[in-house]
Amino acid sequence: MAGLYFEDFEEGAVYPHEAERTVTLADSIQYACMCMDTEPRYLSEAWAAKNSPHGRVQIHPLYVLSLIMGVQVTELTLGTTLGNLSMGGVSFPHPVFPGDTLRGVTTILGKRASSTKPDRGIVDFLHDGLNQRDEIVARCTRRGMMVTRAYKSVKA
């Protein structure tokens, strides 16, 4: 399914995303290694058992944020976004642990037509990641440049 066009977004609309993922220690280790982040709280169960305030290894929070951002693409922005203009308000209110199942919810905070390009507009999103207990584990705002139905692809 293609993403939504600029015209389709309405301020205040809430989109609970169907995709969910049960995260594993292997997910966290792979992400941390790709980022060259050697913080042991995301890598070592033995270290975390002795040193973490939670007594166990945590899933890397930036992996969690990436996952939450990713689950919205198929339903909202696949093929209809020209890029992300900014992100902000990033927070991680609750830690994520191996075995937690995560899902995303997106709320449309607002939108405005581009003042210089009539075939696109700017949409402000709020992305929330929730665990199986419905606790918010990640939150951020994002501003995206979205195409209108009048947009002509530059591929031609």
TrEMBL record:
A single GO molecular function term of this UniProt record: lyase activity
Gene3D superfamilies referenced in this protein's UniProt entry, alphabetically: Hotdog Thioesterase
Pfam family for this entry, one: MC_hydratase
InterPro entries per record: HotDog_dom_sf (IPR029069), MC_hydratase (IPR048274), MCH/BMMD (IPR052342)
Lineage: superkingdom: Bacteria
PANTHER family assigned to the protein according to its UniProt record, in alphabetical order: BETA-METHYLMALYL-COA DEHYDRATASE (PTHR43664:SF1), MONOAMINE OXIDASE-RELATED (PTHR43664)
Name this protein carries in UniProt: MaoC family dehydratase
Natural source organism: Sphingomonas chungangi
